[in-house]
């Protein structure tokens, strides 16, 4: 009896140890991390952003420099600035999505749309004789991203995804330099026959989510000053201030004054009379020049104020973006914590139910089984005793 009791206690301790191990595993896996494939996809996609920024900026600056002394210099310069501004803003929207798969599909679609826009689309004549440079760099960025994607998907899936990208670009071409577009991820889900509720099953563990937010903040801090500078340059390029005309006018006045001094030295009396006449004739012109200069200075002051207001609005937008990202991160953390608690309590409930069942079985084995065995043996012995006297008679 003591041996049976000892064996039962050891079995109960073993079950408790197994239950604790099960609880530990479930607790650790309650927050599901991203698969390694998606983590690699996120890393390589964001490495691609650095290459995208540098190639677009270098090519745009090169095109503007090649047309610096031509008649269409302002037009080409404006287009190069808008290419840098809007393409990099569009890339930030696509590549910093919560789902690495969504970021991959949408960034691929953006590179293909930009290639089509400069090669055969609405932007095929924006850079004049150097349009081929924009087409070449857009094509190279698309090929570079596709080569990166080949390492994450199977060959059959890559061909299927490429067919979707070509179909999407045909239906959704870019129509202007602002790169206005909608995300390709939902269209990709429809094309692949994937339910949108099953497309994203996890946003990653807490360290992965915090790393994602850190990457976003670092990229915004790096790119925002450059984009603000390009916008200010674009604004100044299309303002009404023409500094060249003012410089030409001042140079002409200086040359005229030098010639007058030479004439006065040769004929003082005649030049004195001429000076009086010139003063009378030039007074209206000087007054007009003074008024024009005042107007230009006033206009410059207004445009400076407008530029300051634009910079202020951009800063406010940046602060709002950072605040929104923080709120979203906090909401994700709250949701993850809530999910973890629910999983823990569910598994704890299951474990307690199992323990109660095993405890009842233990009680039956320890107490009721010996009792039933004793009753059965007593009845058997009683029946044998009753049989023996009957035979004796």
Automatic annotation (TrEMBL):
Tree of life domain: Bacteria
Point out the signal peptide segment.
1-22
The UniProt keywords, alphabetically, are:
Membrane, Signal, Transmembrane, Transmembrane helix
Name this polypeptide is given: Conserved hypothetical methyl-accepting chemotaxis protein
Per the UniProt record, which residue ranges are transmembrane? 355-378
Q: What organism does this protein naturally occur in?
A: Shewanella woodyi (strain ATCC 51908 / MS32)
* UniProt KW Transmembrane helix keyword: yes
């Amino acid at each position: 009896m003591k041996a049976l009791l000892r064996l039962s206690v050891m079995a109960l301790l073993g079950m408790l140890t197994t239950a604790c191990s099960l609880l530990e595993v479930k607790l650790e896996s309650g927050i599901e991390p991203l698969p390694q494939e998606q983590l690699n996809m996120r890393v390589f996609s964001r490495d691609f952003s650095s290459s995208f920024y540098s190639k677009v900026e270098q090519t745009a600056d090169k095109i503007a420099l090649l047309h610096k002394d031509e008649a269409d210099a302002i037009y080409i310069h404006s287009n190069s600035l808008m290419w840098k501004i809007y393409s990099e803003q569009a890339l930030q929207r696509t590549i910093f999505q919560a789902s690495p798969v969504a970021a991959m599909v949408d960034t691929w679609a953006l590179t293909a749309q930009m290639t089509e826009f400069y090669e055969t689309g609405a932007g095929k004549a924006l850079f004049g004789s150097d349009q081929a440079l924009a087409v070449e760099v857009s094509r190279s960025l698309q090929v570079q991203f596709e080569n990166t994607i080949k390492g994450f998907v199977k060959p059959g899936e890559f061909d299927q995804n490429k067919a979707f990208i070509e179909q999407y670009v045909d239906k959704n071409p870019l129509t202007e330099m602002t790169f206005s577009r909608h995300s390709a991820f939902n269209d990709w889900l429809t094309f692949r026959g994937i339910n949108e509720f099953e497309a994203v099953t996890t946003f990653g563990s807490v360290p992965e989510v915090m790393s994602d937010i850190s990457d976003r903040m670092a990229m915004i801090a790096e790119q925002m000053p450059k984009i603000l500078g390009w916008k200010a340059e674009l604004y100044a390029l299309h303002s009404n201030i023409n500094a060249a005309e003012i410089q030409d006018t001042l140079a002409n006045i200086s040359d005229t004054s030098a010639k007058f001094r030479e004439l006065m030295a040769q004929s003082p009396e005649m030049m004195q009379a001429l000076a009086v006449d010139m003063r009378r004739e030039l007074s209206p012109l000087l007054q007009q020049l003074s008024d024009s200069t005042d107007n230009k200075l006033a206009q410059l002051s207004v445009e400076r104020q407008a530029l300051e207001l634009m910079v202020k609005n951009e800063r406010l937008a940046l602060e709002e973006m950072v605040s929104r990202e923080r709120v979203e991160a906090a909401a994700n953390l709250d949701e993850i914590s809530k999910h973890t608690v629910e999983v823990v309590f569910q598994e704890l409930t299951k474990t307690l139910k199992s323990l109660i069942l095993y405890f009842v079985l233990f009680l039956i084995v320890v107490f009721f089984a010996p009792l039933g065995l004793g009753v059965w043996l007593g009845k058997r012995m009683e029946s044998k005793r009753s049989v023996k006297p009957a035979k004796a008679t």
